Amino acid sequence: MQPYTPMDIENGPSAAVLRGFHEHFGGAPAWVARAPGRVNLIGEHTDYNDGFVLPMAIDRAVWIALRPRADRQVKVHSLDFGETHSFSVVELGCNQGGWIEYLRGMAWALEKKDRNLGGWEGVTAGDVPIGAGLSSSAAMELATARAFSAVSGFSWDAREMALLAQKAENGWVGVHCGVMDQMISAAGEEGHALLIDCRSLETRSVPLPPGTAVVILDTATRRGLVDSAYNERRRDTAAAAHVLGVDALRDVSVAALERRAGTMKPLTYRRARHVVTENERTLRAADALERGDAAEVGSLMNQSHTSLRDDFEVSREELDAIVALAQAQPGCHGARMTGAGFGGCAVALVEAAAAPRFAQEVAAKYQAAVGLAAKVYVCSASAGASVEPAGAMAEAAGA
What we know:
There is one protein chain. By secondary structure, this protein is an alpha+beta fold. The chain folds into 2 domains: 6-203 and 388-397, Ribosomal Protein S5, domain 2 (2-Layer Sandwich), CATH 3.30.230; 209-379, Alpha-Beta Plaits (2-Layer Sandwich). Helix content is 42%, strand content 23%. It is built from 12 helices and 12 strands. The chain has helices at residues 12-25, 100-112, 136-152, 158-173, 180-187, 230-244, 254-259, 266-291, 294-310, 317-327, 355-370, 390-397; strands at 31-42, 52-69, 73-78, 83-88, 119-126, 192-197, 203-207, 212-218, 332-338, 345-351, 375-379, 386-389. Strands 1, 2, 3, 4, 5, 6, 7 and 12 form an 8-stranded mixed beta sheet that branches. It has a 4-stranded antiparallel beta sheet with strand order 9-10-8-11. Strand 6 and strand 7 form a beta hairpin. The protein is globular, with a radius of gyration of 21 Å.
């Protein structure tokens, strides 16, 4: 079956899950849970090195319409994949792959914390592009956590839920990600990016510069994190930290790294140089956002892409092409690849008035240069994961 395309449906996925619930389960859901995807403005591959990241939650999300069950079973139909799966929160079984494992993994992590989970049935859909580096998996995990909080009655703590979602991805799904994706999906703030210290999980809310827009450029290329070089990069940076005698590369300054350059292999040094300089760029970008200095933020984004391409080697031809095209457009302050790399998306900071023209020009020139049709999204910063009574949602959607 061809995947459901949320934006082909009037009013988007929030209304679609309400209609889908009625069609698949009969009656009305009790709640609608939502969790956003994210775009990282700067701070790439720093999270698992205890460093700093500067993401924002985007106005694209995963939605789940649900109601409780009495038998501690979870039964979910995905409109995106046209599939229905079920599992018991008591006997979770084993990881068999596919989208349901993000839900099952979240149940596993919550049960490990003695949450005494209730069962539920639901319909899910989303408009976060899958595999594009915009954290559709974290959005699914946090929407699932919100669903379980509603039916099980436990209180919501964004930091704790982000850590449990990370545990689900690491220990159940098998992707050794840092905590950034889950943290921003859980704790995002409308109109703001969030500087996250990935060691302490302390956050600092920073406003986007007035008169700017964040534009996501989907290259139409995809990568699989479990099978990619992502885990290899983690090993490289861990090796660099070991040589330098620190717990994580977060603890190394640029000057200290330069002094020790000759003590490590050239490849290990380049990997470390990216992380160390990226942490510095991320802190500078947060300060520049607070000053409203879009030009400085853009310059730092450009430097970040060069470092990711040359030192960390996680870019690819299509990402480099779309970034170069974006950087050349009038009104663009800066652009870089975003996400783990090896495919997916770039992000640009542009003048708001120039955003529509910018989107058209980059998409057209990218297709001419590469032969792929890019999807371009002008995004706003949204709030983190939430759950609300379905009746209020249905009324707002006109369902």
